[in-house]
Amino acid sequence: MTPDSYLVIGGGGFLGRHIVDLLLARGELAVAVFDIAHVDLGPTVKVFTGDIVDENALGNAIRVCGATCIIHTAAALPGRPRQDHEKINIQGTENVINTALANGVKKLVYTSSASVVFEGKDQAGVNESAPYPARPLDDYNDTKAIAETAVLRANGTDGLETVSLRIAGIFGPRDRLTVPGFMALMTQGRTHIQLGDNTNLFDWTYIVNAAEAHLLAADRLAPEHPKHAQVAGRVFFISNGEPRPWWNLARGLWKEAGHVQTRKVIAIPRSVAFVLAVFMEFFGWLFGKAPSLTRFRVTVCTTIRWCDISNARNALDYGPSIPLDEGIRQTVEWWKTTQSHPK
């Protein structure tokens, strides 16, 4: 197949950096990054600084690097105001699509979330046939679903091929959300507190596996690829394929870090946790402080959520190369360096 010129939008972020690393590792010669903040990724990677809602800045980056394939990982993360999600996740993605079309880009790989079809109820083995919920779980997943729809709708327009990857429970080195949150519980001596009974299976995805899925999808968007028709215009769930009880990932991280659980675990029933969350949200609103416990957090920690990745295995030839336990080991190895050399 003809070599691509890659532009990774959000390439300075958690997932984007790993995608860039893999592209370079497999010998790609044309790799560029577009990010809101300047990052130094070495002499071979062109870095363009700008906002994805800035059509001129994005268009300039596409033209200068001669992008034929865009991998779009940028997003406003959960917890930010609704207007930020609409601006970045929806308007930003629409701008990526329009600018790609205007500049003859042939491929667009979009990073979505497994939660776009989640509405707070148990989901065991959910697959791509699941509809978007009538009542989205939060602004993040609502706007990601809207953006995903736009990406898929653009497939086949003026030669642009698109695909969306719904990543589940991403974690790993350079993580600024999940891993720091879990490790903070350890350093604060709170590992004995558990929300729910920990019988709910949850899907996690090690960051390198998530990055590999993006490269597999990009390759198969080429019209000459034998699996092109199975990939273009489609969505795929991506995970490690090893669903485990929610708290088991945290306990795996803690154990790898050398923590020994000596205190009896206090399991707060889901119903009780919801009541506590309501009170904490109220007092947080009353005093203008972020509550330490929310109904959203209780839902995430106590609900069954794992997906069927058969379609990704078949169409993308995706097979998680790094098992969950090895991912935990590599993550803690990285975390220890952040403790030795905090930024």
TrEMBL record:
<protein>
    <submittedName>
        <fullName>Uncharacterized protein</fullName>
    </submittedName>
</protein>
